[in-house]
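Design a sequence for this backbone.
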């Protein structure tokens, strides 16, 4: 069965962002740098940039990311949000509070017309998130 995992692109912030997300979601974080593989970057000052990072939470969520070296075009993420949802309201509220730390609320985590709770934010790394609580029926 295929899986769908968000893969975030950063410019020199992937390590800090993924360590932040690990503090939010918990789990195991694996990071490979460009310097770990010969010839991956032309500028040796970029050897410590993240070529690939993968965070696997205790709940099985997987979030991946990398830095974009200077020799490649970089466009900040736009038109996409990472969504976290479920039926555990205290857990989701805790994730909301952690993700919004240092970021900005786009839509407060409140009760929408369809019920439950829903909110949108942009975290301190410029990534848009949606958090949705839907109580069990």
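Sequence:
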């Amino acid at each position: 069965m295929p899986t769908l995992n968000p893969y975030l692109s950063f410019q020199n912030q992937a390590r800090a962002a993924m360590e932040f997300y690990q503090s939010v979601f918990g789990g195991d974080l694996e990071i490979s740098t460009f310097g770990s593989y010969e010839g991956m970057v032309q500028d040796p000052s970029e050897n410590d940039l993240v070529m690939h990072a993968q965070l696997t939470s205790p709940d099985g969520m997987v979030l991946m990311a990398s830095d974009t070296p200077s020799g490649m075009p970089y466009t900040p993420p736009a038109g996409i949000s990472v969504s976290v949802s479920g039926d555990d309201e205290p857990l989701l509220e805790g994730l909301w509070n952690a993700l919004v730390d240092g970021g900005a609320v786009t839509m407060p985590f409140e009760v929408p017309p369809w019920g439950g709770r829903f909110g949108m934010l942009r975290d301190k790394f410029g990534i848009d998130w949606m958090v949705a609580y839907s109580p069990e029926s």
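The radius of gyration is 16 Å.
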